[in-house]
Specification:
single chain, 347 residues, alpha/beta, Polyamine Oxidase, Chain A, domain 2, 2 domains, seven-stranded mixed beta sheet, five-stranded parallel beta sheet, 9 helices, binds flavin-adenine dinucleotide
């Protein structure tokens, strides 16, 4: 049975590992952070639970729906009620696309990162956390991985790389490998990412978003806010008598202010949110923030064009191959890679 390393415990890497674990292959996942689920991220603070990366997901693909409804426990899965409306640069709020709003929106009561935790638990996945892979070395047709803690892992017959393209490119550059790797890097370079700030705003009274929406998205991309959502809409996330809003700043604004102090970012977000409401909001109780260096891709690399990597045991997954940040689509890339590996090793 082949030994396979997966770099990254986001939903794409974990979905690939989950599918492969059923084949008897020996799979180890390496994750640089302490948590599972990557940008499908949740945090608990002051009694609130909030999704500060991906805010919700839709299930437009049967294969992903089967994973969630047939292979993983569903008791914590939670449908988000309420529509997503729009606002323009002047702050004018309107109803959103009725077709888009008709589709069910999902998260978990325990936070959207429950998805990653369930994949690990149900798949009995072997995940090494706080292990940032720095170098990939190839010898005797196998790969060895060096992490930032000075440990070497392997040998592995294949490696699945799932971080956003710029981080995967850095890993490929570390191989010092040949022509094939050069071609892979050139393809991956097509996937460009926006950076983005998520700002979490907590208020000491309960109030709704304008027109009682679950979320509002900026339609003309000219506002400093890209998205605002009402975390109270999610069961089990926010205690009574308070409000928790997630504000995602526009990519251009985030880029221009990337190095700015967190206090200024929070102040700008709170001010922009206030402007969307018709009446004054209560004073902020507390706030939190996250700088996402690689938040969403806005162009895609082709997974098909990465196939030559299989000749030297390199496989890929993740939203670099989608061209937008979409959790279910990232899962689909993990499934596609697992299929490639099964074919490659005859599993
Ligand atoms: C602010 C924001 C809002 C979003 N909103 C939505 C939304 O509402 N709905 C939706 O469907 N999608 C949304 N997305 C997009 C969605 O979160 C992503 O498309 C999806 O989670 C990507 O999963 P992934 O596995 O491809 O990548 P990731 O989740 O980034 O996983 C890659 C993993 O690799 C790890 N890693 C990186 N380098 C190394 C290394 N050298 N060694 C070890 N580990 C490493 C990272 O820590 C990470 O855990 C949003 C994203 C952001 C940031």
């Amino acid at each position: 049975m082949p030994n396979i390393a997966v770099i990254g415990a986001g939903v794409s890497g974990l979905s690939a590992a989950f599918q492969l674990s059923a084949t008897g292959a020996k799979v180890r996942v390496f994750e640089k952070s302490r948590g599972f689920s990557g940008r499908a991220a949740s945090r608990t603070k002051n009694g609130c639970r909030y999704d500060y990366g991906a805010n919700y997901f839709k299930l437009n693909c049967n294969e992903v729906a089967r994973l969630l409804f047939e292979h993983l426990p569903t008791n914590d899965l939670s449908r988000i009620l309420g529509d997503i409306g729009t606002f323009d640069q002047t702050g004018k709020v309107e109803a959103g696309d009725p077709v888009q709003n008709a589709g069910a929106k999902w998260t978990y009561r325990g936070g959207i990162n429950t998805l990653g935790k369930l994949l690990v638990k149900v798949g009995s996945l072997d995940v090494t956390r706080e292990s940032q892979i720095a170098t990939l070395r190839r010898a005797d047709e196998c790969w060895r991985l060096d992490d930032e803690n000075g440990e070497t892992h392997g040998p592995f017959d294949a490696v699945v790389l799932t971080p956003p393209a710029p981080q995967t490119i850095a890993l490929l550059q570390s191989t010092g490998e040949n022509e094939i790797v050069g071609d892979l890097i050139r393809e991956l370079d097509r996937a460009e990412y926006y950076c983005q700030f998520s700002v979490i705003l907590n208020y000491p009274t309960e109030f709704a978003l304008p027109d009682d929406h679950y979320a509002l998205i900026n339609s003309d991309r000219k506002h400093r806010l890209a998205w605002i959502s009402h975390e109270n809409r999610k069961e089990g996330h926010v205690p009574e008598n308070q409000t928790l809003l997630i504000a995602q700043m526009a990519p251009d604004w985030s880029q221009d202010h990337y190095r700015e102090d967190a206090g200024n970012i929070i102040e700008a977000a709170a001010g922009a949110v206030q402007n969307l409401f018709q009446q004054p909001l209560p004073r902020l109780q507390w706030a939190d923030h996250q700088r996402w260096r690689y938040a969403h891709p806005h162009t895609a690399a082709s997974l098909e064009a990465m196939k030559p990597g299989t000749e030297i045991g390199l496989f890929f997954a993740g939203d670099s191959f989608i061209g937008k940040g979409r959790l279910p689509k990232a899962i689909e890339t993990g499934f596609a890679t697992a299929r490639q590996l099964r074919e490659h090793f005859g599993l």
